Amino acid sequence: MSELCHLIGVLDDGVEGLTPRALAMLRAADVVIGARRTLDLVAGCLSEGVECRDMDGLLTRVPGWVEEARAAGRRVAVLATGDPLCHGIGAYLIGRLGRRAIEVLPNRSTLQLACARLKVAWQDMMVASVHTRDAGEWTPGAGPEHVFYGLLQKLRQADFLGVFTSAENGPDRIARMLIEEDLGRDYEMAVAERLLLPEERIIGWLSPVDAARMDFAEPNVVLLRRLTREREPRFGLPDERYLQRAPDQGLITKREVRAVALARLTLRPDSVVWDIGAGSGAVGLEAARSCPRGHVHAIEKNAADVAIALTNRRHFRVTNYSLTHGKAPEGLEAWPNPDAVFIGGSGGELADLIGLCLSRLRAGGWLVMNFATLENLATAVETLKSAGVAWDLTQLQASRGRPILDMHRLQAENPIWIVCAQRETHD
């Protein structure tokens, strides 16, 4: 029977911070694999004749090295930083070698140590990592391709967040991201530098404005703590909260219609949503607020409305929303397949757009369309009939109270038809 691979967490105090069992497994190893910096930390306790392999830049080769050593009957240890199963290499190795091949001997997490230094409880902390390639400075509207996008998604869900950083994606850059997204007043941050080293330093709690101008020693971790909590509903916000195109105030999907349309989209926290004919952005932005782990891809042909939607995006501090200035269906081929599609405007391409959206919808996804004219309603119904999909139709008529002298009356809003179609759950 092959020896287990021992995955051992090491911190900057080296051998001193290892448990007796971890130290015994390390001393007994014939092959030790780790980053050069980590190998140097434990070099003094390794057995004579041990083979050390530097895995810097060679992570994909590590599973093969482990299998080769085990097949030869050699005892192998892989070194990781802190807890290998918290944004470390543990999940990667277990996924390739199997759970039965590995014993994990974790160390303390640097985030745990940072909380201990600051004397704050960490059981409710959410964890994120930007310990990866240089992401560049954050630009509002950037998508999932930027490593800070995932960080922002977690920030929208967390009151307390711990972040593993890198030399490039450091505390000052995180602070500037918060400022760019108008979140600088909502959070305070602490930084733990060079933990367990003689020059260890704990800095906190800082405003992002102050942190953005500072330099921090490597390695470090960041703690972010929310100061204010948004208490607005995720959708159905008052129309007046949105900037709308002047002088045509009122060109917005009204609150009552917006709430029903969003309900019919049956959004999940991780839904990918298309918003075609975004207008002021009201439907797409509220969809994004309802999908904190998802993303909304929106398109609008009118330049003035694009500017308004982007202003509304910043006002509501929505980060999982991308807006394209263009006329659908141009550019939609580059978007990921959606879980839900909303069509609020079609630019005369309604039949083609319906066909495209139905072909791209993921199984079980919903297409929801709002119409104010009989002609567009007729086009949509005939197109859906021809496509042979399940669909339904609702007319929504709302009236709002208006003052008249010292009394009130009801004033009717324009009737809207909401047409919904579902992509079958099987092909």
Please give the structural blueprint.
Blueprint: E1 5-10, H1 20-28, E2 31-34, H2 36-42, E3 51-54, H3 62-71, E4 76-81, H4 90-97, E5 102-105, H5 110-118, E6 126-129, H6 147-155, E7 160-164, H7 171-180, E8 187-193, E9 201-206, H8 208-211, E10 220-226, H9 255-264, E11 272-276, H10 282-290, E12 295-300, H11 303-316, E13 321-325, E14 340-343, H12 350-360, E15 366-371, H13 374-387, E16 390-396, E17 399-404, E18 407-412, E19 416-422
Parallel strand pairs: 1-4, 1-5, 2-3, 2-4, 6-7, 11-12, 11-14, 12-13, 14-15
Antiparallel strand pairs: 7-10, 8-9, 8-10, 15-19, 16-19, 17-18
Tell me what you see in this structure.
With 427 residues, this protein is α/β, with parallel strands linked by helices. It folds into three domains: 5-108, 3-Layer(aba) Sandwich (Cobalt-precorrin-4 Transmethylase, domain 1); 111-226, Tetrapyrrole methylase, C-terminal domain (Methyltransferase, Cobalt-precorrin-4 Transmethylase, Domain 2), CATH 3.30.950; 239-422, 3-Layer(aba) Sandwich (Rossmann fold). 29% of the residues lie in helices and 25% in strands. The protein contains 13 helices and 19 strands. It has helices spanning 20-28, 36-42, 62-71, 90-97, 110-118, 147-155, 171-180, 208-211, 255-264, 282-290, 303-316, 350-360, 374-387, and strands at residues 5-10, 31-34, 51-54, 76-81, 102-105, 126-129, 160-164, 187-193, 201-206, 220-226, 272-276, 295-300, 321-325, 340-343, 366-371, 390-396, 399-404, 407-412, 416-422. The strands form four sheets. The chain has a seven-stranded mixed sheet with strand order 13-12-11-14-15-19-16, with helices on both faces. The chain has a five-stranded parallel sheet with strand order 3-2-4-1-5, with helices on both faces. Helix 12 crosses helix 13 (374-387). The longest helix has 14 residues, at 303-316. It starts with a strand and ends in a 5-residue tail after the last strand. The relative contact order is 0.08. The mean pLDDT is 92.
